[in-house]
C-alpha cells in the first residue's frame, strides 16, 4: 500500500513538473514586470504664469520615471535606481524612496501640515521622500506624487 502511494505521488509530481506551460524565460519576464517600480512626478508647466493654488492640474507637467532609468523633466535630470552624477537621483530601499540632489533644496509636504516646517536639505545629502513631497529648487519645484502603477 505504501509503495503504491509513493509510486502514485511520484507520477503526479513528474506530471505536474512536465505539464507547466510556461518556459523559464516567461516566468522570469513575468517576475521582472511584477517587481518593476515607477515613480510619478508633477511640476508646473514653465510657460504658465500663474502661481500656487491658481495653477490647475491641466497646467501641470507629469512624469512617470521607471526603474533603472533617467529622464529630463523641467530642466532637471531625474534617475531611479540608476545613479548619475549631477542628476537628482531617486533610489528604493526597504520599501522606502530616497533622494540625493546635486544642489541644496527645500523639502516640504503638500499640502503643508500645520506645525511642520519645511526642511533645508544640503547638496549631495541623501534624504527620505514620501508621496506628496515637494522638492523646491532655486529654479523649479518638483512634486514627488507617489508610486505609479
Strand content: 35-45%
**Into how many domains do the coordinates divide?**
2
What is the spatial order of strands in the main beta sheet?
A: 2-1-11-10-7-8
Number of extended strands: 11
Helix content: 10-25%
Multimeric state: single chain
Radius of gyration: 23 Å
Mean pLDDT: 82
Q: Mind summarizing the main beta sheet?
A: 6 strands, antiparallel
Structural class, from helix and strand content? alpha+beta
Order of helices and strands: HHEEEEEEEEEEE
Contiguous low-pLDDT stretches (5 residues minimum) are 1-18, 29-33
Q: How far do the termini sit from each other?
A: 53 Å
Per DSSP, the total helix count is 2
Shape: globular
Summarize the model shown.
The protein has two helices and eleven strands.
Q: How does this model look, in words?
A:
This protein has helices spanning about 1-20, 25-35, and strands spanning about 40-45, 60-65, 70-75, 75-80, 90-95, 95-100, 105-110, 120, 125-130, 135, 140-145. It folds into 2 domains: about 1-30, no CATH class; about 35-145. The strands form 2 sheets. A 6-stranded antiparallel beta sheet has the order 2-1-11-10-7-8, with no helix packed on it. A 5-stranded mixed beta sheet has the order 3-4-5-6-9, with no helix packed on it. Strand 3 and strand 4 (about 75-80) form a beta hairpin. By secondary structure, it is of the alpha+beta class. The termini are far apart.
Amino acid at each position: 500500500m505504501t509503495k503504491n502511494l509513493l509510486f502514485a505521488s511520484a507520477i503526479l509530481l513528474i506530471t505536474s513538473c512536465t505539464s507547466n506551460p510556461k518556459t523559464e524565460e516567461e516566468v522570469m519576464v513575468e517576475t521582472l514586470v511584477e517587481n518593476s517600480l515607477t515613480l510619478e512626478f508633477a511640476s508646473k508647466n514653465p510657460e504658465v504664469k500663474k502661481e500656487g493654488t491658481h495653477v490647475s492640474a491641466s497646467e501641470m507637467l507629469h512624469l512617470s520615471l521607471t526603474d533603472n532609468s533617467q529622464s529630463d523633466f523641467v530642466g532637471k535630470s531625474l534617475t531611479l535606481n540608476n545613479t548619475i552624477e549631477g542628476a537628482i537621483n531617486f533610489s528604493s530601499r526597504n520599501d522606502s524612496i530616497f533622494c540625493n540632489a546635486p544642489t541644496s533644496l527645500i523639502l516640504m509636504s503638500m499640502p503643508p501640515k500645520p506645525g511642520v516646517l519645511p526642511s533645508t536639505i544640503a547638496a549631495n545629502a541623501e534624504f527620505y521622500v514620501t508621496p506628496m513631497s515637494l522638492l523646491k529648487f532655486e529654479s523649479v519645484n518638483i512634486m514627488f506624487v507617489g508610486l505609479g502603477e
